[in-house]
Amino acid sequence: MSKVKAGGSSKNIHNNAGQRLGVKRFGGQKVTAGQVLVRQTGATKIAGDGTYVSRNFTIHAAKDGVVGFKSVKKTKFTGKSERRTQVVVL
């Protein structure tokens, strides 16, 4: 005999909306100060010149200009270095 009552299955738990993450302004596009450039969970892309990061890792433009992306080496805590994409506004 079972010691626990039948739990059943819940079928309506996977219907939450997506977070709309990703790159919002691409390389070569003109931006004004404060515009969102990248929405991300965690720092997958890092902020460069002319940009800043908000509390939820969103990268914003700090000044008016043109968006650019470049690949840079970033050293991890362990000493290993890996390539990361850096977002800049020139």
Structure description:
The chain is 0% helix and 41% strand. The protein has strands at residues 22-23, 30-31, 36-39, 45-47, 51-53, 59-61, 65-75, 81-89. The strands form two sheets. Strands 1-3-6-5 form a four-stranded antiparallel beta sheet, with no helix packed on it. Strand 5 (51-53) and strand 6 form a beta hairpin.
What topology emerges from the helices and strands here?
Layout: E1 22-23, E2 30-31, E3 36-39, E4 45-47, E5 51-53, E6 59-61, E7 65-75, E8 81-89
Parallel strand pairs: 4-8
Antiparallel strand pairs: 1-3, 2-7, 3-6, 5-6, 7-8
What distinguishing features does this structure have?
single chain; 90 residues; mainly beta; 4-stranded mixed sheet
Biggest sheet overview: 4 strands, antiparallel
H/E element order: EEEEEEEE
Proportion of residues in extended strands: 35-45%
- What number is the mean pLDDT? 92
Distance between the amino and carboxyl termini: 71 Å
Radius of gyration: 20 Å
Query: What is the subunit organization of this protein?
Result: single chain
Helical/strand content category: mainly beta
Count of helices?
Answer: 0
User: What shape does the CA trace take?
Assistant: elongated
- Strands of the biggest beta sheet: in what spatial order? 1-3-6-5
- What share of residues is helical? under 10%
**How many extended strands?**
8
Low-confidence stretches: none
